[in-house]
Amino acid sequence: MKNIAVIGAGTMGNGIAHTFAQYGYKVQLIDISEENLKKGLDTISKNLDRMVSKEKISEDDKKNTLNNITTYTDISEGVEYASVVVEAATENTELKLKIFRHLDQSTSEDTILATNTSSISITQIAAAVSNPERVIGMHFMNPVPVMKLVEIIRGYNTSDEVTHTIMELSKKLHKVPVEVNDYPGFVANRILMPMINEAIETLYNGVAGVYEIDTVMKLGMAHPMGPLQLADFIGLDVCLSILEVMYEGFKNPKYAPCPLLTNMVRAGKIGVKSGEGFYDYSESKKAEKVSSQFSS
């Protein structure tokens, strides 16, 4: 099991590719956009440079990691020899179903198909392939090279063998895999997203300002990052998408997205990646100020 295909070169995809490559796996990084692949590789290279500067890895380690990654714009070509495929595309149900239908036709029957989805049903995604027992959730945390947790989500038909294999594979990446069952939001986001949504509600209702809310949670609850800043780093669009999946799945009003969150996403203010969310990241000095305010 040395060939790992990763679909999607965005924040999660390039982080997953980086992690597998760093531990000696041959990685086929796949994205329909050459520009996205270039940005993904640039991000991996910069993150490796940061690790070299902190003396966590050597220059040779960096070189070997980058040499372990090959890029593709054709999914069929990229997954041809993969033992495991990790899909890390945008958190969109129809897109993921389309990708898995393609994978059903492009991979051998013993290739494990994993999805990095943070909220979409593994059972629903698995229904897109002819043998759903080989489909599993492999939910990495951001930033992937740093965060230890991998949420391993079993779909209704996921086999014991596939689950065991992915649990062991995660350990070989020096991660801590935790097995959970397939319900909306799984564990991580079922607990995290209502907290973030409540923080947004607190702001929306005028109880306190952004800095004040985050400071209370940092200093009072020992959170390394306040919930509003964390939402900015996750992406407000992603937070909204996850809450909508949970609201639809449970039909419980406690998961209904705050109107402020919905309006911010509509306005394109979705956090760090857009330059503005609850904080302004559009100017380097402002970004540095925010970072210093919330550094551990």
UniProtKB/TrEMBL annotation:
Keywords: NAD, Oxidoreductase. The keyword ATP-binding does not apply. PROSITE patterns: 3HCDH (PS00067). The keyword Cell membrane does not apply. Its EC number is 1.1.1.157. Residues 3-182 form the 3-hydroxyacyl-CoA dehydrogenase NAD binding domain. GO terms for biological process: fatty acid metabolic process. Belongs to the 3-hydroxyacyl-CoA dehydrogenase family. This is 3-hydroxybutyryl-CoA dehydrogenase.
